[in-house]
Design brief:
Length: 135
């Protein structure tokens, strides 16, 4: 006669795969900004290539870029490039500096502080240019 076997209870998962710590969000934001920069460069290459096909159409395209909405998008692009570059330097330090993994969280807060200061300065200047050219 066979004895009944116990079935193991399903494992209790206390946390999800993404724990929500700052390092994970830094990684996610690094990927998002990288994709955003890639698409900007793709569009930039396409609109620049139009000049060989039809110079008048190129001029028309460039005129559409002189709108306040595109000016605000430029601020977003600066934010993406700035964060991606600063975080890239942090990733390099984590990978190639012996004490990098130990100080990776502190470096994250430093690059975020630098990001806020530099983006603030860039935003002020870009808004000055946007207001000057819009009115």
């Amino acid at each position: 006669m066979s004895t009944p076997t116990e079935v193991a209870p399903p494992p209790v998962r206390k946390r999800s795969l993404y724990r929500g710590d700052p390092g994970m969000w830094s990684w996610v934001l690094h990927r998002i900004t990288g994709v955003t920069i890639f698409f900007f460069l793709f569009v930039h290459v396409l609109d620049t290539a139009v000049i060989r096909i039809d110079p008048d159409k190129y001029t028309e395209i460039i005129e559409t870029y002189k709108t306040p909405i595109i000016g605000l998008m430029e601020i977003g692009l600066v934010a993406c490039v700035l964060y991606h570059g600063l975080n890239g330097l942090r990733v390099i330090l984590v990978d190639f500096w012996a004490k990098g993994p130990k100080y990776q969280r502190q470096m994250l807060w430093v690059i975020l502080a630098l990001f806020v200061v530099l983006l603030g300065a860039a935003t002020v200047r870009l808004l000055q240019i946007l207001i000057t050219h819009s009115f």
